[in-house]
C-alpha cells in the first residue's frame, strides 16, 4: 500500500511517499481504508519536532481522516466491514497516522459517519471539533456533553473564528443554543465566521474591540474559546462575565508564557483553562466524540467555503506541500485525497 512517512524530524522534505506492507486488524481493532486525510497544525509541529532527530521507526503523519472499514478484528462489535467512519488521534503515540491507504486503529477511534455526510466533513472533525467541545464544556457549570439546547442562555466568544477550531467552536456552540460572538482580523474572515453561524463578528484589529464586545454582551461573556491567550489575556478579562472561563487551546509562535491580569481575574472569579485534546480524560474524550457525532448527524458541522471553512486539497504524493500550506497559515482546512 502507499504511505507517506518520515524517518527523522525536520522540514517537510523529510516526508517520503513509498510502499508499506498492508497492516491487519488485531483483537479490538479495525482497519480503515482512508479516503481523505486532514492536516492540522499539530501534524506539522510533530513532524518538525524540536530539531532534526532520527526516529526509532518511521512515522506516518496526520491525526485525522475518514474512510471505510475494510477489516475488523476479534471482539469488535460496534463496526462492520463497509461502515463509513471518521477517525481521531490516529498518530498520537502511534507510528500510523492517516497519510496512508490503510490504517489500523482501536475500535474506539473509528466513529460511524452517516451515509449523507461526506468524507470531507469526517476528515475535518477530529482535532478541531474535539478541542472545541472541551473548550466549550470547561466552565464551572458546563454540561459534560454538549447537546441541542445545552448552552441556552450562554454567550460564547470565539477568538479567531475563521480557523478550524474556531469554526468548529462556532458551529457546536450555535447547535447547543449559545449566542456566539467571533473575533477576526479581516472582512474576508468575518464573512467566514458569519457563514459558520456566528451571530456577531468583531474585527479585533479595531482599537475599540472590548467596547464592541461589551455592547454585544453587556453582562459579559460566559466562555471564551481562545487561540492566542498571550495576546488577548487583558481583553479576555475585560469582556468576561463573572465566573467565566477562558479556555486556551493554542499558543502563538515563539510565545511560551502568558501574563494573567490577577486583580481583574479575582474580581470576576475567572477560570483560566488550558486545553489539549490528546490528554483529556477518557470520559471527556468519549463525551466529546458522542457530542460531535450527534452534531454531525444533525447536520450542524458542515464544511466548505459556503459554511465558513474553505477546503484546499492535495494528492497523497503532495503531503509535504499540504503540511507547508498549514504551516504557512492558509485559511480553512487542508485535505489530502488518499483513495
UniProtKB/TrEMBL annotation:
<dbReference type="Pfam" id="PF00107">
    <property type="entry name" value="ADH_zinc_N"/>
</dbReference>
<protein>
    <submittedName>
        <fullName>NADPH:quinone reductase</fullName>
    </submittedName>
</protein>
<dbReference type="InterPro" id="IPR011032">
    <property type="entry name" value="GroES-like_sf"/>
</dbReference>
<dbReference type="InterPro" id="IPR036291">
    <property type="entry name" value="NAD(P)-bd_dom_sf"/>
</dbReference>
<keyword id="KW-0521">NADP</keyword>
<dbReference type="GO" id="GO:0016491">
    <property type="term" value="F:oxidoreductase activity"/>
</dbReference>
<dbReference type="InterPro" id="IPR051603">
    <property type="entry name" value="Zinc-ADH_QOR/CCCR"/>
</dbReference>
<dbReference type="InterPro" id="IPR013154">
    <property type="entry name" value="ADH-like_N"/>
</dbReference>
<dbReference type="InterPro" id="IPR020843">
    <property type="entry name" value="ER"/>
</dbReference>
<dbReference type="InterPro" id="IPR013149">
    <property type="entry name" value="ADH-like_C"/>
</dbReference>
<dbReference type="Pfam" id="PF08240">
    <property type="entry name" value="ADH_N"/>
</dbReference>
<feature type="domain" description="Enoyl reductase (ER)">
    <location>
        <begin position="10"/>
        <end position="336"/>
    </location>
</feature>
<feature type="region of interest" description="Disordered">
    <location>
        <begin position="41"/>
        <end position="66"/>
    </location>
</feature>
Amino acid at each position: 500500500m502507499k504511505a507517506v512517512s518520515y524517518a527523522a524530524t525536520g522540514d517537510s522534505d523529510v516526508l517520503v511517499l513509498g510502499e508499506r506492507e498492508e497492516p491487519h486488524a488485531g483483537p479490538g481493532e479495525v482497519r480503515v481504508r482512508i479516503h481523505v486525510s486532514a492536516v492540522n497544525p499539530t501534524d506539522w509541529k510533530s513532524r518538525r519536532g524540536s530539531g532534526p532527530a532520527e526516529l526509532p521507526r518511521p512515522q506516518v503523519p496526520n491525526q485525522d481522516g475518514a474512510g471505510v472499514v475494510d477489516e475488523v478484528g476479534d471482539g469488535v462489535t460496534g463496526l462492520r466491514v463497509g461502515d463509513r467512519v471518521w477517525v481521531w488521534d490516529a498518530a498520537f503515540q502511534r507510528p500510523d497516522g492517516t497519510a496512508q491507504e490503510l490504517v489500523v486503529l482501536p475500535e474506539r477511534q473509528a466513529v460511524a459517519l452517516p451515509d449523507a455526510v461526506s468524507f470531507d466533513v469526517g476528515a475535518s472533525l477530529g482535532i478541531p471539533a474535539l478541542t472545541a467541545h472541551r473548550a466549550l464544556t470547561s466552565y464551572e457549570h458546563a454540561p459534560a456533553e454538549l447537546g441541542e439546547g445545552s448552552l441556552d442562555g450562554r454567550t460564547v466568544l470565539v477568538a479567531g473564528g475563521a480557523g478550524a477550531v474556531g469554526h468548529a467552536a462556532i458551529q457546536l456552540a450555535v447547535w447547543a443554543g449559545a449566542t456566539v460572538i467571533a473575533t477576526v482580523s479581516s472582512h474576508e474572515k468575518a464573512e467566514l465566521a458569519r457563514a459558520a453561524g456566528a451571530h456577531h463578528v468583531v474585527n479585533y484589529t479595531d482599537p475599540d474591540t472590548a467596547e464592541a464586545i461589551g455592547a454585544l454582551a453587556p453582562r459579559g461573556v460566559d466562555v471564551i474559546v481562545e487561540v492566542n491567550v498571550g495576546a488577548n489575556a487583558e481583553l479576555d478579562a475585560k469582556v468576561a462575565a463573572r465566573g467565566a472561563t477562558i479556555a486556551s487551546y493554542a499558543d502563538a509562535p515563539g510565545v511560551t508564557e502568558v501574563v494573567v491580569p490577577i486583580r481583574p481575574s479575582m474580581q470576576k472569579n475567572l477560570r483560566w483553562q488550558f486545553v489539549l485534546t490528546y490528554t483529556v480524560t477518557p470520559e471527556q474524550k468519549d463525551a466529546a466524540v458522542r457530542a460531535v457525532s450527534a452534531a454531525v448527524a444533525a447536520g450542524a458541522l458542515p464544511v466548505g467555503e459556503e459554511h465558513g471553512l474553505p477546503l484546499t486539497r492535495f494528492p497523497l504524493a503532495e503531503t509535504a506541500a499540504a503540511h507547508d500550506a498549514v504551516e504557512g497559515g492558509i485559511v480553512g482546512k487542508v485535505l489530502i485525497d488518499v483513495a
